[in-house]
Amino acid sequence: MRPALTLVTDAALCGSRGLAATVRHAVQGGVTTVQLRDKHGTASAQLAELDRLATVIDGRADLLVNDRLDVALAARERGLPVAGVHLGQGDAGVRQARAELGPDAIVGLTANTAAHLAAVAALPAHTVDYLGVGVIRPTVTKPDHPTPLGVPGFRDFAAATALPCVAIGGIRRSDVGPLRAAGAAGIAVVSALCAAADPETAARQLRAAWQGVSR
C-alpha cells in the first residue's frame, strides 16, 4: 500500500491528452496510487482502460478500481496487476471485497462521519486497509459531497481511528503540509492532476509538498 499521493481519475478532465497519457505523466511525477474511477463506463470499457493503465504505470504505483468490485475481480482473473478496490458507502460491501479479493488485496473505504467510524470499528480486523476521508474543501468533481471537513475536521476524524486516513476533496498544494501534520497517511486528488496543463510537474509539486521540500 503506497498512499502518499493518489490520483483518482476523471477522463473528461484529461481532455484531448487522454487518460493513459495523464496517468503516465502523473506517475512519472511521483503518484504512488492510481484509482480508476468511471461512474458510467461498462465493465468491458473499464477492463480495457485498466489494461492501458497497467501498461503505462508499469509497476511504479498501485492500481485500484473505484466502486466496481466486479471489475476488479474480472481484471485480476485476466492477470492484470490490480491491487484492490476503493469503495464508497453505497458500493459493494467491504466484507465481500475482502472475502473475494483475498487477504493481500488493498481495500479502501470512503468515510466521513462518526457513524462510518463506528461501522468500521465493528468489522473484523484487516477488513479495511485505509479510509478515504473528505471532502477537505468544496469540489466540483463531487457535486453531492458532504460538508467540508477542512484540516481541523480531518485532524479530529483521523485521531478517532487507528486506520490510515487519506485526505481527499478540493485539496490545494498549500493544504498538503498541514494535512500531513494533521495525521494524513496520504492525499488524493482529481482535478489537480487530471486538469493540470503538466501533470508530471503538478505531481512533483504535490510530492514535494508532502515531503516538506520547496520546489
Task: Describe the protein's architecture and organization.
The protein has 215 residues and is of the alpha/beta class. The chain is 42% helix and 16% strand. It has ten helices and eight strands. The longest helix has 15 residues, at 43-57.
List the helices and strands and how they pair.
Blueprint: E1 5-8, H1 11-14, H2 19-28, E2 33-36, H3 43-57, E3 62-66, H4 69-77, E4 84-87, H5 94-101, E5 106-110, H6 114-121, E6 130-133, H7 150-159, E7 165-168, H8 173-181, E8 186-189, H9 191-194, H10 199-211
Parallel strand pairs: 1-2, 1-8, 2-3, 3-4, 4-5, 5-6, 6-7, 7-8
Task: Name the descriptors.
eight-stranded parallel barrel, alpha/beta, about 15% strand, about 40% helix, 10 helices, about 220 residues, ThiamineP_synth_sf
Average pLDDT reading: 95
Number of helices: 10
Low-confidence stretches: none
The Cα radius of gyration reads 16 Å
Order of helices and strands: EHHEHEHEHEHEHEHEHH
Largest sheet: 8 strands, parallel, barrel
* Relative helix content: 40-55%
Strand order of the largest sheet: 1-2-3-4-5-6-7-8
* Structural class assignment: alpha/beta
Categorize the overall geometry.
Answer: globular
Based on DSSP secondary structure assignment, what is the total number of beta strands?
8
N-to-C span: 26 Å
Strand content: 15-25%
How is this structure best summarized?
Its EC number is 2.5.1.3. With 215 residues, the protein is of the alpha/beta class.
